[in-house]
């Protein structure tokens, strides 16, 4: 298959094509008329028309409707007469320009390039859902918290003479030592908490119940259905007596020690303080007495162990003034009263009690006592060492025809501004978030409650959520919810290792067994995470003055408290807050009028 290039005419007489070509390049129409080149683009013209251009090198190839096509073939655009208005092909070009595709979608723009590099990205419309609103509220609360801490620090610094804020903070009640270290005391050892976390000991045998004293009332299951929308007022039980007796003052423990039933004696409150020592922040102390081959762990009268700490492990700083209702001391008193009243209100007070071997060893005859049972249990630490502890349970219930012991404790909310979580709004929908916040702010208290429930062999531990009626009213409270947990499951949830708990107790017992006979005190440092052991005189802590909290009836009462109804109490508390704001406004107006 060949390709014929045709005949090229040759002009022998001069330059240019000959007058009569050797072979016809044009096809005739047969009538002797005009001819047209074959397969050659040609712009027709007549003799009356001006001759156009063979090639236009000055034309802009990117001009006009066919710019993109001309740009693609810019080399041939100089020979294209379709855009020439004088050309006969301009009409066909106009027809082509009027043609449109059905799909008129523009081609996609490049995401990157010179034109897009410095252009601002279009903003998406803001989401207005609950998550965004919740984040805004949390950010506002965090900003308010930082502002409050900033003003608090500057106010304390100003009162302490500027840079001396650290000294004032160190002298605050929360960071003071729980006991005054006397110069005649001899420090024998100091143990950092870092060594406690490495200890582990497993009690070989389950505990043995030697004696159970007291009486228990049944738990009222209707409190499990309480929610923030169906809250209940917290009642007061002034006629029922609660006892916080130390180890050596317990007549049952004295009797067991005389019978040589064990070598180490303590209470569940003292043991739980030792077991959860690495989680503690505030200072506490335990008195240790070595008598013969026996060891007694005691607490002082009015000790910190009798009170419940509030926000001990929180990052928020509480007011230092002892008279402030939100100070650490005032909150501890309030939390202790709440726990006592809560533990009696959630019971069925129908006279039906479960009695045990002996009555309450601390109650007088005819005295009304709280529902509590004391289980004297013995653990075997090694072949020569046994430990007896008095453990408390607060209630009993029937589970599948069997009696189950329960412990009853209450967490208290004093001001949502300090925690950032409002129980009335979160308890129903975000119970886990509320519990996680409490585990962060009260890790030591919850761990001690769990340890006490494990020591007492309780089948269930009930946690109540109690809040103030008004943030500025620390006398009136409501129960918002009550939840139950199994102690072993809850200890796993809060990362409380029972082997580590017993390892701490075993190490302290082994250390004290090497000491001589006498009296010692174990003190948690108020600032550093460590404990110290001091040797003290035999008569220490016997005749010292103890500042005990005032009875509730002697404390300053809020107005209209006893005879008012529940709504009137709320109105009085709110009126007190509004009255303070009104006084401030009145002073502002009077000063403006004076000016």
UniProtKB/TrEMBL annotation:
Its main location: cytoplasm. Keywords: Cytoplasm, Initiation factor, Protein biosynthesis, RNA-binding. Pfam families: eIF-3_zeta. Residues 99-177, 547-595 are annotated as: Disordered. GO terms for cellular component: eukaryotic 43S preinitiation complex; eukaryotic 48S preinitiation complex; eukaryotic translation initiation factor 3 complex. One of its GO terms (molecular function) is translation initiation factor activity. Residues 113-125, 565-584 have a biased composition (Low complexity). Residues 547-564 have a biased composition (Acidic residues). The keyword Protein biosynthesis applies. mRNA cap-binding component of the eukaryotic translation initiation factor 3 (eIF-3) complex, which is involved in protein synthesis of a specialized repertoire of mRNAs and, together with other initiation factors, stimulates binding of mRNA and methionyl-tRNAi to the 40S ribosome. The eIF-3 complex specifically targets and initiates translation of a subset of mRNAs involved in cell proliferation. In the eIF-3 complex, eif3d specifically recognizes and binds the 7-methylguanosine cap of a subset of mRNAs. Belongs to the eIF-3 subunit D family. Component of the eukaryotic translation initiation factor 3 (eIF-3) complex. HAMAP family: eIF3d (MF_03003). The RNA gate region regulates mRNA cap recognition to prevent promiscuous mRNA-binding before assembly of eif3d into the full eukaryotic translation initiation factor 3 (eIF-3) complex. This is Eukaryotic translation initiation factor 3 subunit D. It comes from Canna indica (Indian-shot). The lineage of its organism: Eukaryota, Viridiplantae, Streptophyta, Embryophyta, Tracheophyta.
